[in-house]
Batch of 3 targets.
Target 1
Amino acid sequence: MSLFRTLTGYYKTRVGEAGRHFDWVETTVSHLFRHRHPALDGRSYGGAFHAALAREGWLQDGDRFLEIGAGTGGFARGFLAEARARRGASAPLDYAIADLTPSLIAGQRQTLAEHRADPWTALHWVRCDAQRMPLATGAFHGLALSNEVIADFDAVRADPRRLARGAARDPRVAAAHERIARYGLELDDARQFINLGAIELLEELARVLAPGARAAITEYGQDGPSREAVLYDGWFTRHTEYAIDFRHLKRVAAALGLTIEERNLHDFLGFRADVPVLNYTEVRRLKTVHRELEIRAWTQDELASAHPAIAARYQLRFRAPGDPGFPDDAGGRAHGGFRGLFRVLLLRRL
Ligand SMILES: C[S@@+](CC[C@H](N)C(=O)[O-])C[C@H]1O[C@@H](n2cnc3c(N)ncnc32)[C@H](O)[C@@H]1O
């Protein structure tokens, strides 16, 4: 097993058509709730995210936005729709996307066609590796966003003996070794990974955010060691991610002079407890038989109206997005599901 796994390599070479990738390989919660949804009081995930930031005082008039890792563009579409509704029809909106994957950038341009046609919305794309952002120091005024991305960034196995040996040969191992010492990161066991790319993103944010600028970063993980998670699409595609060690990220952010607040993502977004949905495991299973079925968090009423034959034929179980069996009733349940695992870190440059 190599010491250093590079996911940026995966994103440069392995991601094909965006819809298929997010339906089968790397289904984010924001992808499941990309349409306006009753569990989010009629907002999409991106719209609910904007509403939550506004509610908690994390937005300022005229903020520019920088989204890191936009996937299909579904998050941006909902976020911009909510921003437009709140700011009014002819207020300027400026939204930049930093992403590594050309095929996903092409898909984002299509998803965002309606916003691109709005003369008051400026949309920009920067193709880059966000672990090293091509932005000048102190240049960004506004809010940076990164939703369900940083578990994809580079991670390095933190076995101390391998780290010491590998540091001489591999610059990424050397970089991880150096961060452990610089920030005093705790190591629990030899199976643990260091979220090197996520740490580098915080360093880059601390560098590019102007005083008063902010960032909101979501991901899954725990206050404990990072582990590898391997996802399969059922055919030949294998995608590896690394759960976030939030202890490390909080320590690094504090050392970089960023203020940091942490929220449970499910509660932050305001998911309703009284709107049960079909979980991802079940939708995926159904789609293998019913190819016409869209992968999303169907409510019972939505499914019965769009696919009455499917709704009538199967005994389907619907559960609230806060249930430990959502979105995945196998591995996820053991860790508390979406509600137990996902957090949002809210950062501010003083
Ligand atoms: C899991 S998707 C997240 C998509 C989206 N934010 C969502 O909520 O559905 C990861 C995204 O990050 C991008 N990405 C992965 N590694 C990256 C890197 N090192 N720099 C910039 N973008 C990266 C991928 O191209 C993809 O768009």
Note: The two ends are 42 Å apart (CA to CA).
Target 2
Amino acid sequence: MEPVHIEPFFAALAAANPEPETELEYKSDFELLCAVLLSAQATDVSVNRATRTLFAAASTPAQMLALGLEGVQAHIQSIGLYRSKARHLLQTCQLLIERHGGQVPRSRAALEALPGVGRKTANVVLNVAFGEPTLAVDTHVFRLANRSGLAPGRTPLEVEHGLLARIPPAYLRHAHNWLILHGRYVCRARAPLCGQCHVVAWCDSAPPNAAASAPPRP
Ligand code: SF4
């Protein structure tokens, strides 16, 4: 993608969805951290189904610890890898209390020191909870960045660095959610909906004539 096309690419995503939001359900920074931790290799829908009952039973690190391993597992057993996720969740709660007064830290190093919290989870929490211009590269963002030519790369980290270098600063705050939602619902893994794509005019992989049937530019 030509550098000159990146601004209109994001302007179109912004016009179509000015305030994009994560589809994970949460009421606090702690619940967001838990939901993102649980979402690895799971859909947001399945995580929300589990956390509705989990957060009703425990919405603080102390309450989560009081539930115990079997108690947490009982709420999240429909999610893949639930045994290790439950263990990591409780270890994380213990460290939040010991190191951070029960609060979610606003620091990449502190977040990545928590069990089960990797770079992607830290990026989501820093962006969604604290408004930091970080960019989590999940499967949808990775696919869209490569397919469109926005920031091609062989690894999520390569794509993340490419995106951070190429996205105009004014769009960085919401870029994470715009790209995830666009990748999830429009630039799908199988059968991307190029005919309904707001950024078809700037995409390297747009099929011939797709722009003709695409929605008008916002
Ligand atoms: S034009 Fe097609 S391939 Fe390009 S971003 Fe849109 S949906 Fe994806």
Note: The domain at 3-20+135-213 is CATH 1.10.1670.10 (Endonuclease Iii, domain 2).
Target 3
Amino acid sequence: MAQPLEKPDLPARFASFADFRLGAKRRIPHFAFEYLDGGIGRDVGLARNYSSLDRVLLTPRTIDEGTPPETALDLLGERWTYPFGVAPVGMGGLFHPESAPALAKRSAKLGTPFCLSFVASHSVETIISAMGRAPWHQFYWPRPDDVQNDILARMKALGVTVIMPTLDIPGHQWRERTIRAGVAAKPSPWVTVRDVAPKPLWAYETLKYGKPGLPNIQTYSGGGPAEAEMFLLQNCIRPIGPEEIRRLRDKWDGKIVVKGVMAPEDAEDFVKVGVDGIVVSNHGGRQLDAAPGTPEMLPPIVEAVGGKTAILADGGVRDGMDVLRLLALGADFVMVGRMPYFACAAMGARGAASLDLLAMQVRTVMAQLGVRNVEELRRLKVEVS
Ligand SMILES: Cc1cc2nc3c(=O)[nH]c(=O)nc-3n(C[C@H](O)[C@H](O)[C@H](O)COP(=O)(O)O)c2cc1C
């Protein structure tokens, strides 16, 4: 017998990703929206993330009545209630001062992972107190040895078990939409007035909580956001390959998940140096306009390293259907970036219920597909049209 749908606690007008995105556009200043929504170049890669997911077709099966779908699974030594988590997204304070803590708290309640960005507006300590446990932590891995050692010692002391070095920012990038919108370390007063004046609620909330900084970097750079930005440019925006990860492996006995792998050969090299997982990701279409979509690279990567390391995937996920598409293509786990942050930009902390929406969609679509667990999902006929 069908059970009544457990509806997420969201206003009725917010039923999908498109609604969150529109709500964000209405509520936050133009420069903040462009930073969150934009890709790079002509946004071809960004559009491809969405269109390549749309092309993944799953043929549903019929099954006899039985137990409801099992969404829980094991990953990186823990059991999670759903096969998705929140990807690292920097500068969440630009969207809403409570975005990252609210999403972290909701993730913990739901039993799903939350990954904090190194360039988050909230310190890892703030996130830990919101969640009641340590998050996963992403890094743009700094060059100086003493900073690396200090980070690892602090992470260990704080109970962080998974660190996630991001590999796909080897140098400067020119993100046209953010540049055009005037986002820089110090936006001009004109941009601030032009964009903020029409958004009084955002201005009020941002003032109330204080201007967002980069606390996780300021720990090492000292000073304010400008010093943190300089530290990042001088020490963290750089190529990182298997040799560097091997050195990290020697120093860190927790889990290492490298983020931003798109080539099967690279995946093989990272497996050889002992990573616990890789995230197949093109950084949400923000680094390379010619990048293939994750659905295009997942099958060859699964073929190369499937079963040898955990394969996580992100890029363009808008709903539970997209989560299941990536799992059906062989990912072990899926991360979502913009979707929950759009929701928080649109409605503040209440937007964290977007994670409940994802969870509900995963359950309902699994039932619709006639699968009882992720293994059965992988046995479905999967086509890329
Ligand atoms: C506004 C924004 C900020 C991001 N900041 C980071 C970051 O600090 N570190 C990182 O590894 N990835 C970052 N990403 C990439 C996400 O972790 C993730 O790979 C991407 O958003 C997935 O695509 P999706 O947004 O379509 O779900 C960011 C993405 C966005 C949209």
Note: DSSP finds 18 helices and twelve strands in the chain.
